[in-house]
Amino acid sequence: MPIKAQPLTGVFAAEISGINLASLSEGDLAELRAVMCAHEVVVVRGQTLEPAQQSAFSARLGPFGEVPFIATMDEFPEVIRVVKEADEGAAFNFGGAWHSDFSFQNEPPSFTILSAVDVPPWGGDTCFASMTAAWNALHEPMQIRLRALKAVHSARDAYSPKMQALHTGMSGMQIVCDESANDHRVHPLVPVHPETGREVLFFNRAYVRDIENMPNDEAQSLMSFLHLHTTDVKFMYRHRWQSGDVVIWDNRSTQHVALNDYGGFRRELRRTTIAGESPQR
Fold it and tell me: What pLDDT shows up at residue 95?
């Protein structure tokens, strides 16, 4: 039977039913990957994957992506435990700014897989934005302008030593900042998706710190515009987590943010990333 994908918005994201991620056939896996690229975010409920099962499923999508700065599980070095304990209150929330995972790398991840282990009774949602839809909504003169530009990505305002005190305040995760976060990578602002052939905006305000060869005032103005444009609610899907949920997103054509509105409750998810390739026009 073909995989059933029920759209979750009129723009992107879909819920997949009737599959077990731990026991997919090769044919179903190939079909799921096509659905993932087409819908950009897919939700599969009722999975309750153990770390070994999530690791095994993820590995079938491709090699694991490099995980800098963040401590992983001892037994499963490709798995991050995304944890905020109940007693951390309104403190810093991992993933709490709009971003595309590790876009500051030479080869950012292609897909991210996040499975829910322990979720609060309310709050802690994750919002996603389609960078394909955001691109398609721009007027042609703006598209022509953006196609010629390159963005400077850096982790300096997330993982450089100046940010260590912020991360040290988290009791459920270990994050070690270092000077490598001050490095930068230059990627096309409008690459072509390697699997769909669609143009996308490869932009996020957390890691895009400059526009190459553009005066600072102009670059700051453009980045502010792009942030407001791409995070408009009309390009958004907001996921309300349930235990057993697995959400997979295409990191090449989306950005996301984890909401920090569940002080007093515990939240734990497990994350794996799949290696990607350098964004290209």
Answer: 96
- The neighbour count for residue 81, using CB atoms within 10 Å, is 18
Predicted pLDDT of residue 169 = 81
CA distance 121 to 131: 30
Locate the domains of the chain by residue range. Answer: 4-274
DSSP assigned state of 132: H
Q: How far apart are CA 209 and CA 149, in angstroms?
A: 14
Region 145-162: mean pLDDT is: 97
- pLDDT higher than 70, residue 33: yes
Sheet of strand 254-258: strand arrangement: 236-239, 126-130, 254-258
Q: Which CATH superfamily is domain 4-274 in?
A: Clavaminate synthase-like (3.60.130.10)
* pTM of the shown model: 0.96
Distances (CA, A) of 187 to 9, 47, 208, 210, 278: 29, 35, 10, 11, 8
